[in-house]
Amino acid sequence: MPKDSGTDYYEVLEISPNAQPETVHRVYRLLAQRLHPDNLDTGNEEQFRALIDAYRTLSDAEQRARYDLTHQQRRQDRWRLASTSAEAGNDFDRERSIRVLVLKVLCAQRRLEPNQPGLFILDLEQLTGTPREHLEFTVWFLTQKKLTQRMDNSMLAITADGVEYLEDHYLAMAPKQLVA
User: Fold this and answer.
1) How far apart are the C-alpha atoms of 66 and 57, rounded to whole Å?
2) What is the CATH number of the domain that holds 63?
């Protein structure tokens, strides 16, 4: 197994930790075709390498068992950190700041990469420094308000309403973020 980089292999393969070996193999083949660097439309060498690492680990029963131990520990650590921070301060202000940050990141992604306007929740987790478990609420809220949408490939993208919301409220939000 490659050294622990903190990468969630289940997220890379877009599968549940309960997925059967056949599912791991089937999803890998599908994603490998999509991400292979020779694919001019959707190829991505970095994501393809991560996919190979994930598949090598999760397709081998012994390596997967070892990986699952560290994966479960990471999830528990994130929840422990989250519950501690929620008790420490005003969670509503933090949530509002995270929503604005997610909208800004998604807006920048849409502007900079119009052919690939979305991001996976794992990307948002890394870019915002917020545990995925907390981003799920943020994503749910933004999607319900129609400020973001889930694309066919499960990526999250900002909508026109989301861009407009960000533009309309940016001046009101900017001073609070400068203080934080």
Assistant:
1) 9
2) 1.10.287.110
- Shortest CA distance to 146 belongs to which of 136, 158, 135, 137? 158
Provide the CATH number for the domain around residue 158.
Answer: 1.10.10.10
Q: Write down the pTM of the prediction.
A: 0.50
Please state at what angle helix 132-144 crosses helix 121-128, rounded to 10 degrees. Answer: 110
User: Can you give the C-alpha Rg of the chain in angstroms?
Assistant: 18
Domain ranges, residue 72: 9-81
Other beta carbons less than 10 A from residue 150's beta carbon: 13
CA pair distance 165, 9, nearest whole angstrom: 34
The upper half-sphere exposure of residue 20, i.e. CA atoms within 13 Å in the direction of its Cβ, equals 3
Enter the tokens of residue 52.
Answer: 């190979």
Please state at what angle helix 61-88 crosses helix 132-144, rounded to 10 degrees: 70
Tens of pLDDT, residues 91-141: 777 788 888 889 999 998 999 888 889 998 888 888 888 888 888 889 999
